[in-house]
Amino acid sequence: MSSLISSLTAILPLVIPALVGIVLGIVFHKRAPKAATMVIIACILMLLQSVFIVFTMTVLTDLAGSGSFSWDMYGLLVSSVHFVLGVSVTGLMLAAAFVERPAAPVPATTAHAAATNTALRPHRGTAVLVMGLLGMLVFAPIGTVAWILAARDLGAMNRGEMDPEGRGQTTAGLVLGIIATVLMVLALIGAGFFVYSLSQMSWSPH
Predict the structure, then answer these.
(1) What distances in angstroms separate CA 189 from CA 83, 93, 182, 184, 196, one per listed residue?
(2) I want to staple 101 with a disulfide (CB 3.0 to 4.6 A). Which of 1, 45, 86, 168 is the partner?
(3) How far apart are CA 88 and CA 136, in angstroms?
(4) What pLDDT, on a 0 to 100 scale, did the predictor assign at position 44?
(5) CA torsion, ordered 194, 200, 204, 206, to nearest 10 deg
């Protein structure tokens, strides 16, 4: 009973913001449907993370303590689930912050292109945003590609060569791509240290 109470207390910092976010997402869904949907999904994932915390503290800990599976497996499972859910929530919230931002003022070069009937290249905001999310959640190098494409597209928008309507989505893809790339670099550095530590260990029998 005490473990259940302590676990419920531990999840309050997740549950309360999640419930508030779901309510706000529903309220503002008509005004900003894409951003509101992303916020609602992120908050649902926060609630799932809360449920997993309770499950961990009330079930998995007892199973590991009784020897049903090893503590190493316990640590790997818990850390993996929290990592995936945490990154997903962060990515969705960042995307929601940028996806429906109002378009920036039209540069003079864009106005000149419109006045002279010069066709602007269509933006790739949706594709860049999806790639940024995939880089965060599935395969980090996709995020690096999203970063490169977003930087190029934003430059083209600033020069008046590309439709600026996708600036918000492109910016969101840029942010997600940068985060995915940083996480990938940190993971590679960690893997390098792990391999180096293994190489320094003595495997000869004593």
Answers:
(1) 17, 27, 11, 9, 10
(2) 168
(3) 7
(4) 92
(5) -100
State how far the Cα of 88 lies from the Cα of 187, in Å rounded to an integer.
17
0.90 surpassed by pTM: no
Phi, psi of 138 (to 5 degrees): -120, -60
Looking up tokens 């999310």, which residue turns up? Answer: 133
Q: Degrees (nearest 5) of the Cα angle 63, 65, 70? A: 75
Total count of residues recorded for the chain? 206
Which residue in the block uniquely carries the two structure tokens 């959640």?
A: 137
Structural tokens at position 39: 């916020």
Q: For 5-27, what is each residue's pLDDT tens digit? A: 666 677 877 888 888 888 888 88
Query: Band of the pLDDT at 199, cuts 50, 70, 90?
Result: confident
